[in-house]
Amino acid sequence: MKAEKSLKNIDKPNKTKGIMVELIELYAQGKGKNHAKDVLDASQDFSLKEISDIVLEEATRLIKSKYCYVAVVDPENGDSVGISWTKMTPECEMYEEMGEARFPVRKDGTYGGLLGYSLDTGKSFYTQDVTIHEAAHGIPEGHIPVKQFLSVPVFSSGKLTGQIVFGNPEEDYTDKDMEMAEKIADFYGIILEKLL
Q1: Total domain count for the chain?
Q2: 155, 189 Cβ separation under 8 angstroms
Q3: Does some domain include residue 2?
Q4: pLDDT at 95
Q5: Which of 11, 17, 39, 57 has the fewest CB atoms in 10 Å of its CB?
Q6: Residue 88 and residue 79 in contact, taking contact as beta carbons nearer than 8 Å
Q7: Is 23 within 8 Å of 40 (Cβ atoms)?
Q8: Which DSSP helix (H) or strand (E) runs through 166?
Q9: Using H for helix, E for strand and C for coil, what is the string for 64-79?
């Protein structure tokens, strides 16, 4: 599984992207439940990478975070595959050239660490101090420091299909931020069910 080229490199009508943005906002406000067909209709002209880029851009704006990471769970082997992300490490350039940032599922079926915690538990969470979270085991060398962290799993018809992660917000994360992120994940889950 490899993500396609970025939306920046492909000329898609702004109107269709605008519809996608409006639908993400509806979902974020909790008003999207009756728009699943609209989501699928609007997304049909976009690749997984393009949709993930739009989700990253809008989710980052709505949750007011400096960093974001949008991933899918590879249906073939269970790996967590970053499709769109804010550059935070020197490796991000390499991942961008590869078209993905792949984090293999471990032999015991877990992902581990703070990044894998919502995938392992199937639950959303946030922390204002990453150093005290039970799953934290440090930040890789060269990684931009992350002080605050919010992660939501993405489900499609009850099956874990991805995650959206945020870091370093403008203000402390709240339950309201987590609920909004979960609604954005619902939007993404509808599309992943079609694409994966």
Answers
A1: 1
A2: yes
A3: no
A4: 67
A5: 11
A6: no
A7: no
A8: strand 159-169
A9: CEEEEEEEEECCCCCC
Q: Which letter does DSSP use for residue 145 in this model? A: P
Residue in 120, 123, 100 with CA at minimum distance from that of residue 109: 120
- pLDDT of amino acid 89: 62
Q: Which amino acid is at 192?
A: L
Give the strand order in the sheet containing 65-73: 101-103, 80-85, 65-73, 159-169, 149-156, 125-127
Q: Is residue 103 part of a domain?
A: yes
Distance CA 103, CA 72 (A): 11
CATH number, position 88: 3.30.450.40
Closest CA to 178 of 59, 66, 88: 59
Q: Is the CB of residue 67 less than 8 Å from the CB of residue 115? A: no
Digits of tens for pLDDT over the chain (196 positions)? 544 444 343 344 566 788 889 999 999 999 988 888 888 888 888 899 999 999 999 999 999 999 999 999 999 999 999 999 997 766 656 667 777 889 999 999 999 999 999 999 999 999 999 999 999 877 767 778 899 999 999 999 999 999 999 999 999 999 999 999 999 999 999 999 999 9
| Amino acid identity at 56 | L
> Does residue 14 lie in a domain region?
yes
Pick left, alpha or beta for residue 78 (phi over 0 → left; psi -120 to 50 → alpha; otherwise beta): left
